[in-house]
From TrEMBL:
Taxonomic lineage: Eukaryota, Metazoa, Ecdysozoa, Arthropoda, Hexapoda
Keyword entries, A-Z: Metal-binding, Zinc, Zinc-finger
Gene Ontology terms for molecular function: zinc ion binding
UniProt xrefs under Pfam families: zf-C2H2
InterPro entries: Znf_C2H2_sf (IPR036236), Znf_C2H2_type (IPR013087)
Entry protein name: C2H2-type domain-containing protein
Amino acid sequence: RQSTGSKDTGCKKRFVCPNYCGSSFSHNYSLTRHLKYECGQEPRFKCPYCEGLFRRTSNVTQHIRTRHIDCKQYAIDVISNRIVGVIGEQKRSKRK
């Protein structure tokens, strides 16, 4: 049995960025997201713990999970200078 992580791209269609940035994606929605939020855009979100800059808040939270373990996961929008994407601050209902 082959592992599900194997990458056989020989027969699968790739969606290539039309802006010649070198990016390609296995799903059209990923290309659409790339074109809207990433390609040609300056990084907008900053890690609150280091100088890391990212184009998406999800990339900041992933960065914090792997580089700044046990720290609150949020980002700073460098345009508005506001905190965005605070994780873990929402009220959660207790299970009985």
